[in-house]
Amino acid sequence: MSNLDLNTIAAQLEGLEETIIQKLIDRAQFAVNAAAYKPGMSGFSSAGDKSLFDLRLRYQEEMDAAFGRFQVPEERPFHTDLPGSQRRVNLADSPLAPIDLAVVSCTVQLVTDYLAYIPELCAAGDDGQYGSSVEHDVLAIQAIARRVHFGSLYVAESKYREAPAEFDALLARGDTDRLLEMLTRRDVEDRIQRRVAEKVSYLQATVNPLVRTEISPETVLKLYRDTIIPLTKQGELRYLEARGVRPTA
Amino acid sequence: MSNLDLNTIAAQLEGLEETIIQKLIDRAQFAVNAAAYKPGMSGFSSAGDKSLFDLRLRYQEEMDAAFGRFQVPEERPFHTDLPGSQRRVNLADSPLAPIDLAVVSCTVQLVTDYLAYIPELCAAGDDGQYGSSVEHDVLAIQAIARRVHFGSLYVAESKYREAPAEFDALLARGDTDRLLEMLTRRDVEDRIQRRVAEKVSYLQATVNPLVRTEISPETVLKLYRDTIIPLTKQGELRYLEARGVRPTA
Known about the structure:
Two copies of one chain form a homodimer. Chain A is mostly helical. The longest helix of chain A has 33 residues, at 130-162. Chain A has a single domain, classed as Chorismate Mutase, subunit A (Orthogonal Bundle), CATH 1.10.590. In chain A, helix 2 packs antiparallel against helix 5 and helix 5 packs across helix 9 (217-244). Chain A is 59% helix and 0% strand. Chain A starts with 5 loop residues before the first helix and ends in a 5-residue tail after the last helix. The interface between A and B is large, with 46 and 46 residues.
């Protein structure tokens, strides 16, 4: 990502919507399965008080770290103590300010929000499919995290460059309310929601309801409204705050 | 899976189509990236002559094995020397004959076919996104393998039970041609192809072509026609041959 045109960034975010929706649909094929999130019930020996979900996320991120995933700015990990990459990844020149990207991370809140959201997404009860449930959970939150952090970083930098003096002044006096206002475009948020609702319908238009569980547009919209959009703005704010304390690159 | 009604099995196979198509679309967002499949070019130290694709498949299956994936009959692994599961998986009573499921495995041929298929699926050239490419490759072939082996096992057992004497006679005299004929239902294959083509269109109906690469129905049909359907029949045949040498359960 080296283009900071806001329309280009918005289009990139749009391109991540199908992936997020599809992964939510995948997870919704299984019941809530609360046991998969209970500490100490993973069945893994010496896993201590970790849940099966915790373990799956850990294993997935260790694998992804080895393959170089977290060298990409918008790929912010859920763990801070992952092994290094086993390979060198070629990255495009970054247009971002040289801040510590870890300060932008919204992963802790994202896990909390996502776990609370599972009962909205999935049928109540327990179907015993714990392994499949957490497999799809992890793919879903990775897709959501990518969207949140991509927005946080590139939207913030792009907006900053449109009005650096104004942002600098607000950052200097710590006016968070006005900053969040400048980061909010209600018309864009409305457009995202209309588009996401439409995609949820189309992505399931040919499904055989006897064998695939369908999810409603409202279920996905709720995640966008209550988690994805607010966390993205949160991340934008953190990026700008970190950016404010150092000279422009 | 404990219901051997052929319509129920067909519906289960239908439910896997969205997943396969979606994972092919995910992979098609990246170029062919031939370097990711070249031996010894993974960048991993001490990976010998493995390619990045080989390594990703290995890491993924080691993780999945720990979480219990390959205890499920239709989940046949691509490796034969994986570590054991760290947890006990509750499995429904199996209606399958107690054969060694490894003999049904079509994974070697599937990898060969899939790697040859990548240039049909993806744009020519190299975009440097090797890590993402092999990540999606592995998810795609796992989804395809699940479909192939699910069909191989349950369709074969179901068809056998419809006409055990006839199958026993053909198996006793090794009449592979006639067996394959009995396993072929041209009308079902035609219906699958029409349905898959329709799903490919719907699953991409709301895509913004500026940010998402689209794939054609024909591209997916080719995989069904040349790989998925023939390998499923191959697996059915192997299942029946293994079944033939032991008494009915």
